[in-house]
Amino acid sequence: MTQALFDPAKTGLLFFDMLKGYAYGPDLQTVIPEARGQVAACIRLLRAARQHGTPVFYAQADHRSDGRDHALAVTDIDLARNPSQAAGLGIASGAREAEVIDELAPQPQDYVIKKHRWSAFFQTELELSLRARGIDTLLVAGGSTEVGIGATAYAARDLDISTVVVRECMRSGRGAYVSDYCVNEVFPRLSRVRSVDQIIGALANGGQEENAPAPNTPPQGRSGSVSRVARPQLAIKNEPQLDPKRTGLVLFDTLKRYFYDESMSALLPETKNQLAACQRILATARKLRLPVFYPAADHREDGADWATAVPDATWDQMVERFGRLRVAPGLHHGGESAEVVPELAPEPSDYMVLKHRWSSFHGTHLELSLRTAGVDTILLAGGSTEIGIISTAYGARDRDFSLVILQDACRSARPGMDAFLMEHVFPRMARVRTVEQTIDLLAPSPSGRGLG
Known about the structure:
This protein is an alpha/beta fold. The chain is 27% helix and 19% strand. It is built from 13 helices and 16 strands. β3, α3 and β4 (111-115) form a beta-alpha-beta unit. α2 (36-51) packs parallel to α7 (196-204) and α9 (272-288) packs parallel to α13. The longest helix is centred in the middle third of the chain and has 17 residues, at 272-288.
């Protein structure tokens, strides 16, 4: 079967953080062994892009040498570090470590996008540059897979920019298991995943690909699957308490469509434990007078505002609307399925955040409302974990909010997904705690909001 993977006239190539400080050894000129396969694949991809006139973009970490523009979020990885072995400030602007590796050196016509957070889109000119060139599809290469690639791919999806993740061009500093799981299990829900050979073949064939995978059938990984590995042990001591005066609860898409059966009258059995955990943290938030935020999907019934980024696999149907394929979300503004479940019903003092994409921050007033309420730490619950929770977590991290992800109050319908994200991805951007552990951390403030 032959079908279009992309329109060559509307496609660009993005290299994420292919920098000397990440890919080279201490001499800053020799590729480290674990990056050799990735670099070789990226070289092949770049040559093909140059040959076919594909615009090339380089997302490049750019930080002050004194660290004053680094992310402020508190994470499990940060808390587990031995203070005597604190991490350095990372890639500093102007340092050799911040240069793109020689093998992929930019040319004058390329775009170098300086970025200060994980996502290549966050407060950069990348979106503007893509729109100016009429680009609606990005071939994505680089890493780290679960950090910059994930943040960028989720943001691209919310911006209606399709991504094609290039399999061999991915690498995680936390090992092949983490990278492969993201590529094989997470990314097909928001992206397409292809090999370098498949991309080169499509470029040579006007964007058409031979033997394309059937819709909703993600391509198999390098080994055909990924095997489970143990969670890294995080020896966290002297964990700081949460200040109720600066903490807010975000309940993501706690809607009837996701908790109830098709009749919208009976709770799905598999959601009962999650709902009970959400009720427990909501009751605590009410008691401590934490502000509560309800991001809720809000779509036009005619489909004019549905997402258009094309993935390999989706729970929702892809349908033709207004001249483009769109992802039908299955609920719409004013429909019963879009209502918050009565067990978690909002009160007049709460914040309803109507959203049109996965991230609770994209195109909404959530950030403004959090800042106005004095919130710098978010308790995040709801789901689905690999959809709204992770996209919101990436957005919160880039905006310097500290996060506590409530693992028993989140849920994915896909076996193994919750465990992988909670164990291997979220500790890099958040604290991962149960509802009861979080309640224990919510020490009432002596003044202001609290039990008073």
